[in-house]
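Section 5.1 Outputs to date
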Amino acid sequence: MKLSALAAVALLASAAPALAQTESPFEWLEQVDSDRSMDWVRAENARTLPVLTGDARFAGLQADALSILSASDRIPTPTFVGKAVFNFWQDETHVRGVWRRTTLDSYRTATPRWETVLDLDALSTAEQANWNWKGANCRPVTYDRCLVRLSNGGKDAVEVREFDLTTKAFVDGGFRLPESKQTVAWLDADTLILTRDFGPGTTTESGYGMVVKTLKRGQSLDQAVEVFRGESKDVSAQPDVLRDGTGHRLVLIHRGLDFFNRSLFRLSDDGTVGAALPLPTRLETHGYLGGRLIASLQQDWTFADVRHPAGALLAVDLDRLEVGTADAVEEIYTPKDREALNTDEIAVTESRVVAVRYANVRGQLLTFRPTADGWETLVYGGLENAAVSLVSTADEGDGVFFTEEGFTTPTRLRFAQGKAAKAVTVKTLPARFDASNLKVEQHEATSKDGTKVPYFIIHPKGHKHDGQDPTLIYGYGGFQVSKPAVYDPLVGKLWLERGGTYVVANIRGGGEFGPAWHEAALKANRQRAYDDYFAVAEDLIARKITSPRRLGAYGRSNGGLLMGVAMTQRPDLWNAVIVESPLLDMLRYHLLPAGASWIGEYGDPTIPEEAAWIAAYSPFQNLKPGVKYPLAYVTTSTKDDRVHPGHARKFVAQLEAYGDPVLYFENTDGGHANGADPTANARRWGMHYTYLTRQLMD
C-alpha cells in the first residue's frame, strides 16, 4: 500500500477506519508465528547470515562484543533490598544469569562475597523453559519475600512467582500469577494489588490491564476483589504503592488516558476509590516523603491562583490539595533555560529527594532535604560532557548509588550518603577501548525551522576534514527520552577504535531540555524530529567531517521509525541504515499489540486529519518504486511483544517487491530489548558492525 500525503488529505472526508486499515499484500506477515510467516523469516535469515557472518571480520567483532558483554570485571549493578545489596549477573558460565546478594560493606570492597539466591540457568534447565530475568519486587519492612518476574524469551509479558529470600526457594503455595503484561505490588505482607489480563473485558485496546484488583494470600485469581476499572480506550490502569520513611503508606491508581496523560486516584484504607485527585494529567510521580507526594510536572499548572511551570519538581500534600489551599503544593526545584530533570532519574529516600539534572545535556546528581527554611540542596558530579544515572536508593536511610560516565570516560559507580557533601567512588569500569586518540565535541545544527539542535561527535584527533570519516549517527527523538554522553564499550571497541566517527543527535521529541523539547515534535509536529536529524547530518557534511558515501544512521524502536523516515525522505544522505525493532507501518501501528498505547505520541490513524499527518511520513506507505535506497539492514525479534515484528517484515517485503536490495535478520528470541542472552547479543552487535564496516569503511 502506498499513500502520499496529498492522497491522505484527499481522503479526509472518507471513513477513518478505511484509511487506517487499507490492506497491503503483505499483511499476512503480521501473523507472528504462522508457518507462512516463519518460512519467510527463515528464508530471509538464510540470505542475510552468509553475507554478514560470512564476512572475514565478523568473527573478530563478535568475539570482541562477547568479551565486553560477559567480562568478569564489569561493574555489578547494585540494587538495595532491605539492608542487603543484590545484583543480577550474566557471563559465559551463567548465560541466563544468577540473582545474588552481599552486604553493603562487602559490595564496596574490590572483591565482594556473593551468595547466589536464584540461578536462572538451573531453573530453565529444570523446567525446560526459556526464562529471562525481568526483576523482582520485594516485600517492604521485612524484605524477606519477593515477587520474581520471569519472561519467556524476553517478552514484556511475565510470569510472577513469590520467592523466599531466607530459604532461597519459591514459596510452596505462595503467590503465583500466570503470564501476562502485569503490574503487581505488595499492599501488605499478605495482600497484593495488581492489574493484568483477568479475562474478557479487562484489558485495554493497547493490551494492558484496565482493572485493578486486590488478591489475598490463598485466594485464586478469580477470587481477587476489583477496586478500580478504567476504560478500553485507556492505555492502562496501574497500582502504585508508596511508603515514606515514617511508615506511612499511599496507594495510588494511575489511569493512563494516553501514554503521557493520566488521572490519579487514591485507594483508601477501607478499599474504596474516590474521585480523581485535582492534579494535572501530565504529572510523573516518584515517591512519598513526610506525608507528601513527590512528583514532576510535565505541563504548566495553576493551582489556587499560583502558577507552577512545566518541568518543576513538586511536593504535594494531597489532603490540603483536595480542600484547595495554595500551600498544598511546594516547588522543590524548577529547571532554568536549557536545563531539565530526567523524569526517569528521580527517587525518594528516607529523608531526601534525589534527581538527575541536565544542563545543555551535561548531567549532575542533586539531592533535596526539607528544612524549616526550604529545601536544602546538595550537588554531586563534575565530569565534563557527563551522563549521570540513578542506580539504586536505599530502602533504609539515604544511601544512593549513581553512575557518572562520558563518551570516552569509563563508567564510575559512586555512593552518596545523607548529608555527606561529597560522593565516594565505589567501582570504576576498566577502559574497554583505546580512547587516547579520540576527541569529544558538542556542536549545534540549525534545523529547517531555525531551531538549534545540539549533537555530540566523537572522532579521531586531527582528522583531515576531507569528508572521508566513516560516521554513524545515532538518534531517537521521542517519548521524552534523553540521549546523553554514555560510555558505550561496544561503540568504542567495534567502531571508534577502528577509525569510525560516532555522533549522538539530541533531536526534538527527546527530553534533553524538558517537556517543551518533547512536545515540539508530538503528533502533527513529528516532522520536526526528522528535520532535526537531517540537519545534523547536513551539518557534518558541511563541516567536511563525512559525506553521504561514508555516512550511516542507526536507531531502534521509535528510533527505528526515525531510520525508516531517513531512508524514505532522504535516501541521498546515507550509505548505511540500521533499522532495528522498528515501527514502520504507522497507519496500522495502533492495531498491532501495544501500538494503541502510543497514540498520545503519534496521533490516531482512525481520525482522518491525524491519519494525514501520519501518512506524510509513515515509512511503509512512502516506499516508492524506482528510488535508489541505501542498502539497509533491518532487524527485529519474533518475541518482541512491544513493537510488533510485522512492521519490519512488511517493510522489507515491500522493498523486495520493488526490486531493492535489503538485508533482514529476525532473532527468534530476545524480546524488544533483544539483549537478554550475552552470546546472542554478541552476534547481534557483530552483525551490526560488520554491516557498517562493509558499507562505510570499505
